Amino acid sequence: MDLFLYLVLAALPVVLYVAISILPHMIRRTCPECEKRGLRWCSESKGLFFEEGRAVRAHRAYYVCEKCDQAYVRRNKGDYEVLSSESRHQYIDDTGKDKSKPKK
Ligand SMILES: [Zn+2]
Questions:
Q1: pLDDT confidence bin for 99, thresholds 50/70/90
Q2: Does position 53 have pLDDT exceeding 60, yes or no?
Q3: What's 31's DSSP letter?
Q4: What is the DSSP code string of 3-19?
Q5: Taking a C-beta distance cutoff of 8 angstroms, is the pair 59, 44 a contact?
Q6: Confidence of residue 96 (pLDDT cuts 50, 70, 90)
Q7: Cα–Cα distance measured from residue 18 to residue 32, given in angstroms and rounded to the nearest whole number
Q8: At 32, is the pLDDT very low, low, confident or very high (cuts 50, 70, 90)?
Q9: How far does the centroid of ligand 1 lie from the alpha carbon of residue 90, in Å?
Q10: Cα-flanking dihedrals φ and ψ of residue 19, to 5°?
Q11: What is the pLDDT of residue 50?
Q12: 28 vs 36: CA distance, rounded Å
């Protein structure tokens, strides 16, 4: 076998690992509000959250729709819930975004 084939075979697991870890964040999901494929993953947090006076171990992922600008939180891979404006400032980084775009 020649050297090129060895290099391709050696790099293949790394390329697959990077592709598998990046692709889910690049694919746009359907927004519950406008029903277009514009939902962009922004951030996620895992750990203990205080809900209704007790600590709960949970996973939360935060999304923004690039079509209608609605922000969502997804708890434990459940349904998308609309994020309040206070939580949006806390969990979603809107810096660098074009502020001239009209907000809904
Ligand atoms: Zn939308």
A1: very low
A2: yes
A3: P
A4: HHHHHHHHHHHHHHHHH
A5: yes
A6: low
A7: 29
A8: very high
A9: 20
A10: -65, -45
A11: 82
A12: 9
* Phi–psi pair at 50, nearest 5 degrees: -100, 115
Can you tell me whether residue 103 is helix, strand or coil? coil
Q: How far is the CA of 44 from the centre of ligand 1 (A)?
A: 19
Residue 90 vs residues 42, 43, 94: alpha-carbon distances, Å: 12, 11, 10
Is the distance from CB of 31 to CB of 65 less than 8 angstroms? yes
Each domain of the chain, given as residue ranges in start order, spans 29-91
Q: What angle do CA 51, 55, 56 make, to 5 degrees?
A: 80
Residues near ion ligand 1 (CB < 5 Å) are 31, 33-34, 65, 67-68
Residue 4 identity: F
